[in-house]
């Protein structure tokens, strides 16, 4: 401020005096700051240890060091002594939360560096190395310790039922991290997502995200990817999820080739069903209800041991799962030797041509 004020008054006789005074003040501040050398910022992880270095480097012949204290100021809380070193009375650790975790690395007043073992998230804050000196009074330097935590990442697909409203089909979580993680979704499904953040009592952050869409049968088995980025991770964490959408069956009958002639022994029909979960029952019937004696059913397959007039009928396949039932019908025609369909007669009892 003093320099800026003088600059507006180029003819002021006090300009040089202001500049000299500013230089003296800045120089004095630099000297004070250099007396206690510490690291300005450190980062650490829970359960690990950290060394807080401190050194008195500008004592001079007239400065006498009498005692040094480490003072902790938590992010939310009041300052408190955690370690004291006196050349005659030795070491003291007045804060019970640190007592068994703090040690002095050197038994020397000029280098009172400490180590904190078994770190906790709550240890984050400002650590001041403060000297009691004579005759200049207290001198100090402060290190800010930032506690980091790798998030515990997880993701899962949510089983849902096909419907007409938007629901959560996948969830992703980055729990107990610091700083907060970022969650992204990669997908061609066309949904959207919502994210919530909650703060833990120890300073960690849990981020949760849901991927939502209006699910259809076509979405079952499609992929979405959860991607978590966070400062402590070497690379983004990703998890590929397959959507699980449940829906009632859809049924088709396959295998009929329009060539069921009398005496044929390899005629087969297949009841194909798409469903989630898998069908619980598959039932074959005919227009009359019961199946002909020449028909054998095995799971979804209907086999005709020998084609005759009895299979000149309409077959129905019904498939069920817990979400409902669906059926499909197919009418088969048996061809006799002259190329006509069995049972195809006119009012006078003569066989009608198929062509």
From TrEMBL:
Signal peptide limits: 1-33
Which superkingdom, per the lineage?
A: Eukaryota
- Please report a single Pfam family linked to this protein: V-set
Chief location category:
membrane
Write out the entry's keywords from A to Z.
Disulfide bond, Membrane, Signal, Transmembrane, Transmembrane helix
UniProt membrane topology term: Single-pass membrane protein
Name one cellular component (GO) term. Answer: membrane
- Domain Ig-like stretches: 33-146, 151-244, 249-331
- Location(s), subcellular: Membrane
What InterPro entries does this protein map onto? CD80_C2-set (IPR013162), Ig-like_dom (IPR007110), Ig-like_dom_sf (IPR036179), Ig-like_fold (IPR013783), Ig_sub (IPR003599), Ig_V-set (IPR013106), Nectin/PVR (IPR052659)
| Keyword Transmembrane helix assigned | yes
Supply the Gene3D superfamilies for this chain: Immunoglobulins
**What is the name listed in the Swiss-Prot or TrEMBL entry for this protein?**
PVR cell adhesion molecule related 2 like
Species in which this protein is naturally found: Fundulus heteroclitus
């Amino acid at each position: 401020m003093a320099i800026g004020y003088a600059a507006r008054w180029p003819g002021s006789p006090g300009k040089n005096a202001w500049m000299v005074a500013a230089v003296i003040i800045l120089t004095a501040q630099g000297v004070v700051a250099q007396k206690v050398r510490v690291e300005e910022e450190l980062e650490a992880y829970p359960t690990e240890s950290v060394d807080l270095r401190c050194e008195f480097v500008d004592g001079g012949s007239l400065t006498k060091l009498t005692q040094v204290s480490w003072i902790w100021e938590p992010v939310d809380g009041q300052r408190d002594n955690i370690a004291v070193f006196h050349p005659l009375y030795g070491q003291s650790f007045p804060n019970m939360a640190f007592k068994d975790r703090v040690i002095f690395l050197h038994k020397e007043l000029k280098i009172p560096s400490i180590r904190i073992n078994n770190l906790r998230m709550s240890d984050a804050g400002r650590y001041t190395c403060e000297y009691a000196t004579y005759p200049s009074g207290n001198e100090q330097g402060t290190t800010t310790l930032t506690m980091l935590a790798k998030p515990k990442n997880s993701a899962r697909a949510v089983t849902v039922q096909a419907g007409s409203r938007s629901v959560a089909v996948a969830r992703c979580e980055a729990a107990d991290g610091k700083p907060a993680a970022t969650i992204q979704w990669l997908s061609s499904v066309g949904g959207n997502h919502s994210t919530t953040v909650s703060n833990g009592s120890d300073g960690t952050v849990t981020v949760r995200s849901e991927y939502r869409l209006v699910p259809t049968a076509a979405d079952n088995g499609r992929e979405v990817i959860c991607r978590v980025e966070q400062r402590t991770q070497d690379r983004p964490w990703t998890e590929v999820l397959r959507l699980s959408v449940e829906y009632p069956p859809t049924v088709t009958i396959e295998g009929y080739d329009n060539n069921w002639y009398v005496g044929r022994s390899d005629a087969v029909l297949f009841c194909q069903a798409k469903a989630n979960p898998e069908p619980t029952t598959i039932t074959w019937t005919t227009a009359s209800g019961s199946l002909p004696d020449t028909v054998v059913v095995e799971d979804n397959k209907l086999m005709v041991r020998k084609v005759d007039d009895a299979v000149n009928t309409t077959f129905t396949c019904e498939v069920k799962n817990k979400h409902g039932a669906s059926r499909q019908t197919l009418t088969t025609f048996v061809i006799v030797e002259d190329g006509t369909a069995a049972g195809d007669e006119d009012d006078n009892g003569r066989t009608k041509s198929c062509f």
